[in-house]
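Appendix B, Record 12. Input sequence as logged:
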Amino acid sequence: MTTVNILSGGAAQGLVRGLGEAFKAKTGFGIGGEFGAVGVMADKLRASKPADLVILTQVLLAKLAAEKLVVPSSIADVGRVETALAVRSRDPRVSVKTEADLREILQSAGAIYVPDTKASTAGQHVAKVLDQLGIAYEVTSRLKIFPNGATAMHELAMSAAARPIGCTQATEIIATDGIALSGSLPPGCELVTMYTAGVTTQAAHPNEASALIALLTGADHRELRQRVGFAA
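Logged structural output:
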């Protein structure tokens, strides 16, 4: 089967997976490609990795369009995703209403599972919040960093640590078996990120890429977007 290839932030993986059958029915194409930290995916496109479309943060898409790697007229917002907390399904949910609550939860966690703190949206934010809370040095030895949020959440599900916690995009938490969305980050520490799709200037299948973007953003799939963790 011919496939449309994407380079996407991990936040969109559950949504893309959920649209696979609808896309095949509409175009006859499958969906291939990679999901990972948005900075890594953008750099793959810059290094001429074959891709028909990208799903990355709004800020990165604008940069790639300015670099003439994405067709500006094709760009469309998919939806907002919050960075949130996760626990193993068997553990009690944590309630975090203030920065003090978050500091206490992170200080007491046996391990903290996060995506790449340099190349991923959520990972960069976690590093910033740890500094903001004044506990970055204190928790360094318990920080478990993985290439992307999906891997970090899978490892959280398998963790044998006492009271482990994870922090990444809500969509990646919802898509992972064995863990549960535990809640939002408190005021002052929150992050909501707009994810955006665009057809690449070197797309081998630009029409099918546009068709996939229409599915990703269309009103017919608003319920799916919400179910996998996107907000309007």
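The chain is about 40% helix and 25% strand.
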